Amino acid sequence: MTFDAPIQALTDAGVEFIIIGGLSAVLHGSAYVTNDLDVFISRDTENLKRIVKALAPFHPRLRDFPTDLPFVWEAATLRNGTIFTLSTDIGVIDLLAEVKGIGSFQEAKAKAVSLEAFGRRVFTLDLKTLIASKLAAGREKDLQTVTELEALLEAREQGHD
């Protein structure tokens, strides 16, 4: 998956989001390989409308659900859930309104770092918060990346950035 199209679509639409998960690790220098885009989203009503508008051209559908299952792509749908694992024409995108180990969207945004990626200015979790989220998730694939992320954090704190 290339991340340019979804990140540019979300950013250009003014969506408030923070890159989390595997891509956040990559943005911090990890060798981790990821095939999906995980974003922590603000559940503000206007933000949900912007998400719907930004991703509608890419035909979002619930991933791993039967294609004949009705799915209405609108802000009310996003308001009524907290995790949407989507298949789109531009790749797999996971929209998360709650993330274990991170806190609220505003708390995460206060700890996020802003950087240039994919031709846009984006926010991603800082390394400490990313590590906390991986530990809180407790999945094997998350725990396997923690050692590398901790080494990246240690190097950064020692000025070997």
Helix content: 40-55%
Spatially, the strands of the biggest sheet line up as 1-2-5-4-3
- Helix tally? 7
Number of strands: 7
Radius of gyration, rounded? 16 Å
Q: Count the domains.
A: 1
Encode the helix/strand succession as letters.
HEHEHEHEEHEEHH
Described by its quaternary structure, the protein is single chain
Find the structural class using helix and strand composition. Answer: alpha+beta
Mean pLDDT score? 94
Structural shape: globular
CA distance, first residue to last residue:
27 Å
Relative strand content: 15-25%
Q: Main sheet, how many strands, which sense, barrel?
A: 5 strands, mixed
- The low-confidence parts are none
CATH topology: Beta Polymerase, domain 2
CATH class: Alpha Beta
Known CATH architecture: 2-Layer Sandwich
Describe this structure in words.
By secondary structure, this protein is an alpha+beta fold. Helices cover 42% and strands 22% of the residues. A five-stranded mixed β-sheet has the order 1-2-5-4-3, sandwiched between helices. A two-stranded antiparallel sheet has the order 6-7. A hairpin with a 2-residue loop joins strand 6 (112-117) and strand 7. The chain is globular and about 50 Å long.
List keywords for this structure.
7 helices, Beta Polymerase, domain 2, two-stranded antiparallel sheet, alpha+beta, 161 residues
Summed up:
This protein is an alpha+beta fold.
Helix and strand arrangement:
Layout: H1 4-12, E1 17-20, H2 21-27, E2 36-41, H3 45-55, E3 61-62, H4 75-79, E4 83-88, E5 91-96, H5 105-111, E6 112-117, E7 120-125, H6 127-137, H7 140-157
Helix pairs in contact: 1-3, 6-7
